[in-house]
Amino acid sequence: AYNIHVNGVLHCRVRYSQLLGLHEQLRKEYGANVVPAFPPKKIFTLTPAEVEQRREQLEKYMQAVRQDPTLGGSEIFNSFLRKAQQETQQIPTEEVVLEVLLSNGQKVKVTILTSDQTEDVLEAVASKLDLPDDLVGYFSLFLVRETKDGAFSFVRKLQEFELPYVSVTSLHNPEFRIVLRKSYWDSSYDDDVMEHRVGLNLLYAQTVSDIEHGWILVNKEQHRQLKSLQEKVSKKEFVRLAQTLKYYGYLKFDPCVTDFPEKGCHVVVSAGNNELNFQVRLPSEQIKEGSFKVTRMRCWRVTSSVPMSNGPSGSSPGKSEVKLELAFEYLMSKDRLQWVTITSPQAIMLSICLQSMVDELMVKKSGGSIRKMFRRRVNGALRRSDSQQAVKSPPLLDSPDASREPVVKLSSKLTSVSLRGISHSSSANDVGANDFHGNYAFEGIGDEDL
């Protein structure tokens, strides 16, 4: 059997024959020209080298399927992963009570099936809270780790290929919880949410919590005004004032390490307002702040590596943590691209944030409405609308190649970057183009932005 890790966590174990079955289903539904090639069957027993080669081929196959918006968002692929997750964790289908937290720590208990997917659980929570159907899509479920001070460290946004109950219980650790939070970046959408009492309450609770945990910066005068609005129970005015504050609507990540502006700098990264904000502690102990706009990132990738153990082999079993990195290629000036790397256990969550920012920008650019991005009920079943791109789970690859030539010259007219056309270097060690998330919002950069 092969272990499939999704977002850095063991998701399921599957046999070659099960993956072949999935491949045949996808071919039947979408045609051989759409589905990537599958590692061939072998008549004789595989040698250890062939076993490893097949594992690598299967990994590339699964990543290629996941990165294709049609295949990766298909019910065939997602239901295969959900079923395999449930079978691997050996959790029978039965009715259970799942506890979902709101930002203020309030608990919402919903009765669901262990086999209910993310959207079913989100729907159940919304129904329990009386959140209207057309606002459900503005919120998402997040897997978090509760820290000692009661704050949350974000692990990932729960995806459509997983079963929330199975995902959280299989971690066997009470610190892991599921939290409901808003899942859009543009604060102008707050208006839609605040039209309804429950939407307003959820937004208010999240804003209060973010201020209390220091995610949103408040000076003394603003604090006094906020306190006064809280006493008057003027929730809408409270949110309106909060919208003007620094880091409103940002997700703050745990302290980690970056190679910008130099290797080994400690950094606190926040995601919001279509950017990654860096608060960097330089080796001189000086704190510097800067932002990387998502529209100037040409592409990004998540990579993983398992550090070599220093001691004799087997001296510390289970201690070798997988190291995760998010690297993005950034347009520093008109003709200079530079790679910036963040080393953080939350690299996957950072990548999911970047992807959702790009998706939101593209929907706006095409004149679509965010309401359309979300699913609609058809005959009692939830269906995604066509305008929503599947948010792809980042592949886990080898570490970025340090010897890779930097791209110095950009073509005079920047064109949209596709997943297939990112790598133009002819260098033999160049990473294949499929390893990247191409950024479709990158083409929006005009000369005036530079």
TrEMBL record:
The keyword Protease does not apply. GO terms for biological process: endocytic recycling; intracellular protein transport; signal transduction. Residues 382-404 are annotated as: Disordered. Keywords: Cytoplasm, Cytoplasmic vesicle, Endosome, Lipid-binding, Membrane, Protein transport, Transport. GO terms for molecular function: phosphatidylinositol binding. It is a peripheral membrane protein. The keyword Acyltransferase does not apply. InterPro entries: PH-like_dom_sf, PX_dom, PX_dom_sf, RA_dom, SNX17-31_FERM_F1, SNX17-31_FERM_F2, SNX17/31_FERM, SNX17_FERM-like_dom. GO terms for cellular component: cytoplasmic vesicle membrane; early endosome. Residues 1-88 form the PX domain. Residues 94-185 form the Ras-associating domain. It is found in: Cytoplasmic vesicle membrane; Early endosome. Its main location: membrane. PROSITE patterns: PX, RA. Critical regulator of endosomal recycling of numerous surface proteins, including integrins, signaling receptor and channels. Binds to NPxY sequences in the cytoplasmic tails of target cargos. Associates with retriever and CCC complexes to prevent lysosomal degradation and promote cell surface recycling of numerous cargos such as integrins ITGB1, ITGB5 and their associated alpha subunits. Also required for maintenance of normal cell surface levels of APP and LRP1. Interacts with membranes containing phosphatidylinositol 3-phosphate (PtdIns(3P)). This is Sorting nexin-17. It comes from Casuarius casuarius (Southern cassowary). The gene is Snx17.
